[in-house]
Amino acid sequence: MKVAVVGATGMVGEVMLQVLAERNFPLTELIPVASERSVGKEVTFKEKKYKVVGLQTAVEMKPDVALFSAGGTTSLEWAPKFAEAGITVIDNSSAWRMDTSKKLIVPEINADALTTSDKIIANPNCSTIQLVMALAPLHKKYGIKRLVVSTYQSITGTGVKAVQQLENEYQGIEGERAYNYQIHRNAIPQCDVFEDNGYTKEEMKLVRETQKILNDATIAVTATAVRIPVVGGHSEAVNVEFNTDFDLNEVRTILENTPGVTVKDNIKEFEYPMPLDAEGKNDVFVGRIRRDDSQPKTLNLWIVADNLRKGASTNTIQIAEYLVANNLL
Ligand code: 2RA
């Protein structure tokens, strides 16, 4: 199995290499790919050094699968070229997510929709993945009517420049900014750019992608996405109104029995999920499970996950694992 990692020198790309090694993905050849300016750089995979190649070279090397995390512009131009060469692309950018001919996959939820004809597969946005991981089994049982989501997002979602900005501000050093404002000791209610409706692209991803993955356009979703000076992962406060009532213990049992979800919920012991605990782990963590007494059939949840892992790299690699296990490559 020849695997290309496109964007291998970026934050997600580096975590992809870590997760491929951790999960012992059955690859016989690794092809690290990046933009021309990074060609010739080296990456390390399983203690071996690999030279980064350019995109055209990577196509000509004919990997079986290409894991993309190189931004929407690169993906729009190059994913079709890889696909035309018979290479299956799993893309982390937003480029293909809402394309009606492309599948938007969280393996625990909808991998069974995949077929050999899917040559460009979209990996959902990180904040969407952790949300639907917790909500999909509850939607199946009770039917979701409406979601109100507030996110508290790690600066790693923005990238290296944001991590450096926080470090500089913490050290009192002047430097380049990833954000319009200081992020140290701050909270910025803007993740990505604003759309004409006054919501950010990040907020609208939570709306549109959730409906697509759960295959239910009747689910009403509204979101506020906030950037906070944290690096371990994204947190989300979720208020969910169901079509039918629920039993709180049954909700907890459903979540405890959901693959990829860990329930951490014991307020007597001050146990609840936090980015510090989620960082470096592949599960989605759920806590603060409680009924919303202000409205019938409504639940509050707190959901935390490492946005570079289940929010990006791990989900991407799990899709590839599914393709391999089901002979879909
Ligand atoms: C963010 N989810 O956190 C977006 C892209 N990674 O900025």
UniProtKB/TrEMBL annotation:
Pfam families found in the cross-reference section: Semialdhyde_dh, Semialdhyde_dhC
Domain Semialdehyde dehydrogenase NAD-binding: 2-117
List of residues binding phosphate: R97
EC number(s) reported in the record: 1.2.1.11
Positions annotated to bind NADP(+): T9, G10, M11, V12, R37, S38, N307
Cross-referenced InterPro entries: Asp_semialdehyde_DH, Asp_semialdehyde_DH_beta, NAD(P)-bd_dom_sf, Semialdehyde_DH_NAD-bd, Semialdhyde_DH_dimer_dom
GO molecular function: aspartate-semialdehyde dehydrogenase activity
Catalytic function, reaction form: L-aspartate 4-semialdehyde + phosphate + NADP(+) = 4-phospho-L-aspartate + NADPH + H(+)
Highest taxon above the source species: Bacteria
Binding residue positions for substrate: Q153, R227
Active-site residues, as the UniProt record annotates them: C126 (acyl-thioester intermediate), H234 (proton acceptor)
UniProt keyword annotations, A-Z: Amino-acid biosynthesis, Diaminopimelate biosynthesis, Lysine biosynthesis, Methionine biosynthesis, NADP, Oxidoreductase, Threonine biosynthesis
Annotated metabolic or biological route of this protein: Amino-acid biosynthesis; L-methionine biosynthesis via de novo pathway; L-homoserine from L-aspartate: step 2/3; Amino-acid biosynthesis; L-lysine biosynthesis via DAP pathway; (S)-tetrahydrodipicolinate from L-aspartate: step 2/4; Amino-acid biosynthesis; L-threonine biosynthesis; L-threonine from L-aspartate: step 2/5
NCBIfam families tied to this protein: asd_B, PRK14874.1
Function, as annotated: Catalyzes the NADPH-dependent formation of L-aspartate-semialdehyde (L-ASA) by the reductive dephosphorylation of L-aspartyl-4-phosphate.
Family note: Belongs to the aspartate-semialdehyde dehydrogenase family.
Assembly and oligomerization: Homodimer.
Protein known as: Aspartate-semialdehyde dehydrogenase
